[in-house]
Design brief:
- The structure is a single chain.
- The chain is of the alpha+beta class.
- It contains one helix and three strands, in the order αβββ.
- It has a three-stranded mixed β-sheet, covered by helices on one side.
Length: about 70
């Protein structure tokens, strides 16, 4: 899922502040959310979240990742 769609899903459950981070460790900023793919999340799927507790790890579209 791209970062924008993931953020929309988080918003749909009433949480409006989440964070994202470059999963490569390079510290790149996610300016255009649709250009990034979510490869991991914290907390894990099905775990309730609150404002700011969701962290999405992302790589740019087309970069190698563990999600196929």
């Amino acid at each position: 899922m791209n970062l924008q769609d993931a953020q929309n899903a988080i918003h749909a459950v009433g949480v409006f502040f989440s964070r994202s981070r470059d999963a490569t460790g390079a510290g790149r900023r996610q300016i255009i959310d649709r250009n990034w793919i979510v490869v991991a999340q914290s907390p894990g799927p099905g775990t309730p979240i609150t404002e700011g507790s969701a962290v999405l790890s992302v790589v740019k579209n087309g970069e190698p990742n563990s999600c196929g």
